[in-house]
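Hi C.,

You asked whether I'd gotten around to modeling the 92-residue construct. I have! Everything is below, sequence then structure, no commentary in between.
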Amino acid sequence: YRQADTNRDGHVDLGEFARQFDIERRNPFLPRLVQLFDLSGDGQMSVFEYVVCLSQFGARRGRGDHIYFAWRLFDVDDDGSLTKDEFVRVLK
């Protein structure tokens, strides 16, 4: 967490998250990825939120967990289904 929080403000913002995981800033799913773990909705991750994020990528996660995570990433409006627009966005 300390490596990711480069400005030492106690939170990991979108830019810091992108740098830590080598994700291009223009990746259209970057904001959504941060949003999935930003439980407080403040646009950045606390230590707790960051640990929850890292736990999603652990070796002990099953294939079903990864599929569910991917579904949540693509289901932008969190309604439990993929609309045509959401699916087209994934394909682009």
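If it helps when you're writing up: Residues 34 and 66 are 16 Å apart (CA to CA).

Thanks,
B.
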